[in-house]
Task: inverse folding
């Protein structure tokens, strides 16, 4: 059975959590890109199933996706999803424009996701007092549907309901690099988070 939708106050609290966590992730990406400005959109909070999460990132569009599971006080995953062209541009930036094998490019994307997720979880741990740890990153290239479905498969729990905190990022690079950061929580974990925050 699906749990009740969060109240307005709870949604505001979740948006603020996303703003803080994704903001730290964006700052970490900025440092990784040599101080280039990384803009962050106002985060959105959505409640639904895996199909709703897939719709957020463009359904069958071609992407580069990297994600990590979350362990500790929360059960979920953090995803970095970039359109294929943006993913290639980011990899080239970080590889100094040098040709690279697919394995090297995957390693770069995994490290980017690891740095962003670690910054986000460190910030959330500071808010909650929980020790939150990322799992080993996974990188997938291809349709957004397959990548996101795989990423959330271990998160959704018995009811298959998720709370997704989503923000868009844009790096002031040449060419510009944009994508999405998604913090995907099992519905019970989102309730535990709200309780921890006293909302």
Result:
């Amino acid at each position: 059975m699906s749990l009740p939708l969060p109240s307005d106050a709870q949604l505001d609290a979740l948006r603020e959590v996303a703003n803080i966590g994704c903001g730290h992730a964006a700052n970490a990406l900025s440092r990784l890109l040599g101080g280039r400005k990384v803009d962050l959109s106002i985060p959105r909070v959505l409640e639904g199933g895996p199909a709703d999460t897939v719709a957020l990132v463009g359904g069958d569009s071609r992407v580069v996706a990297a994600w990590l599971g979350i362990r500790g006080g929360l059960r979920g995953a953090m995803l970095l999803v970039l359109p294929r062209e943006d993913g290639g541009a980011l990899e080239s930036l970080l590889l100094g424009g040098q040709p690279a094998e697919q394995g090297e490019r995957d390693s770069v994307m995994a490290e980017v996701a690891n740095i962003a997720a670690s910054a986000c979880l460190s910030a959330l741990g500071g808010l909650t007092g929980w020790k939150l740890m990322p799992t080993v990153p996974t990188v997938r290239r291809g349709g957004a549907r397959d990548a996101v479905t795989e990423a959330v498969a271990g998160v959704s729990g018995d009811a298959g309901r998720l709370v997704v905190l989503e923000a868009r990022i844009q790096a002031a690079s040449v060419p510009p690099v944009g994508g999405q950061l998604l913090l995907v929580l099992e519905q019970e974990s989102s309730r535990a988070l709200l309780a921890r925050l006293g909302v």
